Amino acid sequence: MEREELEDVEIQLLLEGIYRYYGFDFRNYALASLKRRIWNTVKTEGLTTISGLQEKVLHEPEYLERLLLNLSINVTAMFRDPNFFLTFRKKVIPILRTYPFIRIWHAGCSTGEEVYSMAILLKEEGLYHRSRLYATDINEIVLRKAKSGIFPLVMMQEYTHNYIQAGGKKAFSEYYTAAYGNAIFSSELKENIIFSLHNLATDNSFNEFHVIFCRNVLIYFNKNLQHRVHKLFYESLIRFGILGLGRQESIRFTPHEQDYEQLVSSEKIYRRVS
Fold first, then answer.
1. What is the CATH number of the domain that holds 163?
2. Are residues 123 and 255 in the same domain?
3. pTM (predicted TM-score)
4. Do 87 and 54 share a structural domain?
């Protein structure tokens, strides 16, 4: 058997073992990205084979925790892609004003920068008090970090720049307190946020939403899993609800392509129309 074939078998066995024993399903993640992340973990743990990693993961849960951190995509920033948030402010906020109560789902929220950005935006637009934000992720460790609302102070210059470009209406520093090299965000921003575990690969819808964000997550899934997630989002959105995707993502060539209209050509913000 070729070395590459053997590697693929090892990866399949590892992912199948994780799914059967722990319930985390990475079997439909894009293989090239998975392969890189798994090998990084193998080397970091001082191992030599993927089979060796499988043995550790199945018998010692702390290895699973570290592998999950590597397999979960946790690249994020506050007001990331500022024009997305500026467009949301201009085009979507007027739609949301027509609802008495607003439910927003941040799927794959990672360490929470995006959900705090949305809380700030909604506060400035006078809508936060009648909004509920659901921030979900597969990874308990990053969720705990998100719930803390504490981010490195060194990132605030970049985040402030993003905030201003996104149409921010105040001094960004009003939203956090600096202490011990960290920015501790106001507890008021967390009042209407619910942080919860949710696995896009296996879990079902848990509410009906006016807005769903899933940005820069779908690019790490294969076509089958992408289609599953798009079905989940379609079933979870109210009619005329809003779906926000990442810059490299699209609803084109998905089973629900005809069910949405793109609000503006420059951003991946879609409105469910059927």
1. 3.40.50.150
2. yes
3. 0.91
4. no
Task: Tell me if 128 is assigned to some domain.
Answer: yes
pLDDT tens string 49-103: 999 999 999 999 999 989 988 887 667 899 999 999 999 999 999 999 999 999 9
E strand or H helix that includes residue 66? helix 61-71
114 in the same domain as 51: no
Q: What is the pLDDT of residues 133-148, one digit of tens each?
A: 999 999 998 999 999 9
Query: Taking phi first (over 0 means left), then psi (-120 to 50 degrees means alpha), and beta for anything else, what does residue 123 get?
Result: alpha
> What total number of domains does the chain contain?
2
Those residues whose C-beta lies under 8 Å from the C-beta of residue 118, and which sit 6 or more positions away, are 104, 106, 133, 213
Nearest to 16 by CA among 53, 54, 42, 49: 54
